[in-house]
Amino acid sequence: MSTLGALPFLKPVHLRSPRSSPGGQRRHTLPASEFRCLSPEDAVSVFEIEREAFISVSGDCPLHLDEIRHFLNLCPELSLGWFEEGRLVAFIIGSLWDQDRLSQAALTLHKPRGTAVHIHVLAVHRTFRQQGKGSILMWRYLQYLRCLPFARRALLMCEDFLVPFYRKCGFEALGPCEVTVGELAFVEMQHPVRGHAFMRRNSGC
């Protein structure tokens, strides 16, 4: 069995029963709500959501389309998408990092032997914002990371106005981040990820 197939947090979650035809036979319908790792085929949908979410706020995107494809080819298992009836509505993209703190190189590199998961971006489609989906997706992502034997902590960088949101998700601020993008400065934050053995005993991983 593959690692992903064994993880309960990535199994489709059906929020309503499939509809039945008048004759009592079930018609095929897409899952009302599904969480799964992203693939390179999802890259365009990811970029469209990200571009709309970030361009108006900061004038740039954390990841451009070629970088999204890069990470979804190298480490799709460190991404998570939320789909509503087959449509991507929110996502997280991560990669592995092998140092205590993030550096400029962390923006583009995936370190396969790393134990820190660098969360590059979390974004929600504009029509699904203000519904708590960002918090729910981050919670599921952190639960998923706890099932990965190599993951020890999650790292991210964000602007000051997002620090309260990530604090509510359980992250703690480490201080100013070394990474800058143009004139933008960031706060670096981390969240511990418990060991694989603990989660196997307590969550069915």
Outline of the structure:
Its main location: cytoplasm. The protein is of the alpha+beta class.
For this entry, give a set of tags.
seven-stranded mixed β-sheet, Aminopeptidase, 5 helices, disordered N terminus, 26% strand
Topology (elements, then pairings):
Blueprint lengths: L33 E3 L6 H16 L6 H10 L4 E6 L2 E11 L18 E9 L8 H13 L7 E6 L4 H6 L3 E10 L2 E9 L3 H8 L2
Parallel strand pairs: 4-5
Antiparallel strand pairs: 1-2, 2-3, 3-4, 5-7, 6-7
Helix pairs in contact: 1-2
Provide a descriptive summary of the structure in words.
This protein has 205 residues and is α+β, with helices and mostly antiparallel strands. The chain has a domain at 33-155: Gcn5-related N-acetyltransferase (GNAT) (Aminopeptidase, 3-Layer(aba) Sandwich), CATH 3.40.630.30. It is built from five helices and seven strands. The protein has helices at 43-58, 65-74, 133-145, 163-168, 196-203, and strands at residues 34-36, 79-84, 87-97, 116-124, 153-158, 172-181, 184-192. Strands 1-2-3-4-5-7-6 form a seven-stranded mixed beta sheet, with helices on both faces. Helix 1 packs across helix 2 (65-74). The chain is globular. Pfam families: Acetyltransf_1 (PF00583). Its EC number is 2.3.1.87. GO terms for molecular function: aralkylamine N-acetyltransferase activity. Its main location: cytoplasm. It is an enzyme of class 2 (transferase).
